[in-house]
Amino acid sequence: MARDWFRRFTPAPDSGVRLFCFPHAGGAAGAYLALSRRLAPELDVLAAQYPGRQDRRTEPPLDDLGRLVDALADELAPLCGDGDRPYAFLGHSMGALVAYELTRALDRRGLPGPRHLFLSGRSAPTESDTVDRLDTDEAILARLRLLGGTAVEILAEPELMELVMPPLRADYRALCSYAWRPGPPLRTPLTVLVGDSDPLVPVEAAAAWREHTTADSDLRVLPGGHFYLDAHTETVADIIRTPLEAA
């Protein structure tokens, strides 16, 4: 098990399906604690812990999305290579982009891909996407205020801000480094989730993910903004269980 890169909050020894979860910009594995508890013991949930945060705070964060995806692919290759145990990816916001590009990277390596992709709070990528071109602390903080969620509470705590800003800067540099490149569409079924009042992700932009796969695509619109998941953990857990129980 890739101990440094993934955290398992709730053991699920009898689960037949692994769900790998990837957090939003500035986020950490703990963002999936509540969801992990809702999904156990049916699913074995492993949340990614990127360098530079929480128990990996002494490590330099990765500020290039391609390098981040390659590092995750290296870690996951031994777990996914035999294809005996089905797995799926869930990513929110930046994490949705990571999950998508990681699926492409594993396919390029000839490895069995995830049985399902759950892409949350993110518009489908395009060649002209500039939404994450934030190159100053002021722009990043303005984005946090726009998106809301628990991150807004941190803005009033200088000591917490000192811990949060380095990974936030790195993550937005990583997003700035990303340029979508056309390629073969995925063969993986998608479930796309978005809040109906997300200030950054219009529903129609989330729905456009369907163009990135030849398999089925399902759009779920839930009440709330960018961090709708905080208020609808049980609903999201039910959405995830349905296709994965079949797997």
List the helices and strands and how they pair.
Elements: E1 6-7, E2 17-22, H1 33-39, E3 43-48, H2 65-80, E4 87-92, H3 94-108, E5 116-120, H4 137-147, H5 151-154, H6 158-177, E6 190-195, H7 203-207, E7 217-222, H8 233-246
Parallel strand pairs: 2-3, 2-4, 4-5, 5-6, 6-7
Antiparallel strand pairs: 1-3
Helix pairs in contact: 1-8, 2-3
Please explain how this structure is put together.
With 247 residues, the protein is α/β, with parallel strands linked by helices. The chain has a single domain, classed as Alpha/Beta hydrolase fold, catalytic domain (Rossmann fold). It is 37% helix and 15% strand. It has eight helices and seven strands, in the order ββαβαβαβαααβαβα. Strands 1-3-2-4-5-6-7 form a seven-stranded mixed sheet, sandwiched between helices. α1 (33-39) links the parallel β2 and β3 (43-48). It starts with 5 loop residues before the first strand and ends with a helix.
Can you give me a brief rundown of this structure?
This protein has 247 residues and is α/β, with parallel strands linked by helices. It is built from eight helices and seven strands, in the order ββαβαβαβαααβαβα.
In total, the number of strands is: 7
Low-pLDDT runs of 5+ residues are none
Give me the Rg, rounded.
17 Å
Helix content: 25-40%
CATH superfamily: Alpha/Beta hydrolase fold, catalytic domain
Q: Number of domains in the coordinates?
A: 1
Quickly list its features:
247 residues; alpha/beta; Rossmann fold; globular
